[in-house]
Specification:
Elements: H1 11-34, H2 38-67, H3 76-102, H4 112-129, H5 140-166, H6 172-206
Length: 207
């Protein structure tokens, strides 16, 4: 990154870190739900709603900071786009949790646990990458790994679809419920890739 003649406000990086922390929290709630008893599910859903609200607050804090700052660490539109992309990942995880609980699905598809593992790893990587926005150094490994994980998630998604539609004893309503859930998980993985692509674009413009 080139030399800057204007000072940077480090508060932005703290706000992005706070936003990314909600990704980790959301992935934790999603993971906990898979192994939860029926009686525990409502509490996990309530916790997920709290995480989503915290993510919204973090996004609003970033937007307010942009509006009130004369100098920003990088382009205002890029800051807004990254904040929204991070928040969207939490929204998508909340949708997956919501569907599992509201649909009263007793057992998710076997590969769902593997998909959630991928999402959790993406959340951790994204959280770890946020502090490096200060310098944009050593970011390449982050978006390359996110892309690899997203490709893995896509393959698992297609396998789950095939297994779901090829199941001979599944009734139509059950198939629809499971498809909505795995669609939400696929959208979440895509959301994390969108965050990584946004960071990559920022790094290119700021280099």
């Amino acid at each position: 990154m080139g030399f800057r003649l204007t000072p940077q406000d480090p508060t932005f990086y703290d706000l992005f870190a706070a936003s990314a922390q909600q990704l980790v929290e959301g992935a934790g709630a999603l993971t906990a739900l898979l192994g939860a008893e029926a009686a525990e599910r409502e509490a996990i859903l309530s916790r997920m709603h709290e995480i989503e609200a915290a993510a919204d607050d973090a996004t609003h804090a970033i937007v307010r900071k942009v509006a009130g700052s004369f100098v920003t660490p990088f382009d205002r539109a890029d800051i807004h786009a990254l904040a929204v992309a991070l928040d969207q990942c939490v929204d998508l995880m909340e949708a997956a949790v919501d569907l599992i609980v509201l649909y009263q699905v007793d057992e998710v598809l076997p590969r769902v646990a593997k998909q959630v593992e991928v999402i959790s790893r993406m959340a951790d990587l994204t959280h770890d990458a946020m502090p490096r926005l200060r310098s944009m150094k050593e970011m390449g490994a982050y978006w390359v790994e996110i892309n690899r994980l997203e490709n893995r998630a896509n393959k698992q998604y297609r396998r789950m679809l095939a297994e779901l539609f090829n199941a001979k004893k599944a009734d139509a309503i059950t198939v629809m419920k499971h498809k909505d859930i795995i669609d939400a998980l696929e959208a979440t993985a895509n959301g994390f890739e969108h965050v990584a692509l946004t960071v990559e674009a920022i790094a290119v413009r700021e280099s």
